């Protein structure tokens, strides 16, 4: 049995479950699982209370490669997940209550409306049920029309607010489903903003983020820092480009080092997204640079992948590979302003045509990809782009695709974690290292292939199964 890992949440309940029984062969792992430290416990509570400084420090813990930090990071994530689960069930109960209430009201209204037909009454009931769902469901589609004066005031940039700055407390989240914790799954929206260097991703995020904050959202931006793949200075560059958003007290901007992770997407991005949501950010924007693997990898993290492309057509369009188009939910041709407006429109038309030629990414839904133009310098076009994102989200929600996709992504991340952790264990395993070193002579003689040698090393170190002959 793993030692009970229990911490008390703000309301005094246990937020980490009781001891988990392990199958016999795994018992030795138990010794490697630490108990949550008071500092981690405090961090988890700080994050869940929406404290920006705690969030910043928690992300640093998640990104740390030190063994003891990694154990604490796991416990921190457990605490956050436990809280999310509890809020989810509260949210589901509230939803059921509201739906039942709306249906009852609709039925009463139908009964009192003399002359209404049965079909009309049923239609009214169905409409009311949908309305109730909309009330209880997240207000992710919140746009300019729903902005309130109070929210506008709250979204005004704080005097100082880069993470860890003086304005470390977020404004308290609006009362909504799930009580005070507004960022619970799946009432959040994760959008990947991918595209080639210089396409205008950061500029667009800065403009979009400001608008979203003004509409009452809380926006976390994770800029996948490409410093490990390109020459330095990019953190400063991105931070500089998002100056306004970094200062906004409803926003949180955080570069994530990639440390050479495949595709340029930080290995921990998924965990960082979860933390941001736990801290009350209902929209998470993930910027990633590059064409190719990074889009595919970021697609395993977000609900919606927007590909931001420069206004180019013809030959340059050929450079945008089919595979990338296949994983884009939305293609946005940026810089559609001034001299480039016409070219951007033509490029968007070409992408639109290209999208009809590839298999749909979400065949169970009506979404067939969409190409549009945008200019980060023109707020109305940014708002239009966001309306495409929320339309996409609504279509996915209507088909249960958001939950299904997140579950599939969790499976993908599990395997990515398994690969990373298994490899690390192998590299640290003295017997494996010795056996591998023992193969070097035969390898250099050419009497065994590296492939066969790896097989032999693994099989001979494995606890069970047939032993391989060298
Ligand atoms: N005219 C015009 N210029 C833009 C627009 N968006 C971005 N730019 C300019 O394009 C250049 C690159 O913008 P960034 O936002 O840094 O591009 P990026 O895609 O984030 O670049 P990397 O992070 O380096 O990959 C900057 O000089 C911006 O001012 C736009 O909508 N219109
Ligand atoms: Mg950028």
From TrEMBL:
This is AAA+ ATPase domain-containing protein. NCBIfam families: lao, PRK09435.1. Belongs to the SIMIBI class G3E GTPase family. ArgK/MeaB subfamily. Residues 187-355 form the AAA+ ATPase domain. One of its GO terms (molecular function) is GTP binding. Residues 142-193 are annotated as: Disordered. The lineage of its organism: Eukaryota, Sar, Stramenopiles, Bigyra, Opalozoa. It comes from Cafeteria roenbergensis. Residues 153-169 have a biased composition (Low complexity). One of its GO terms (cellular component) is cytoplasm.
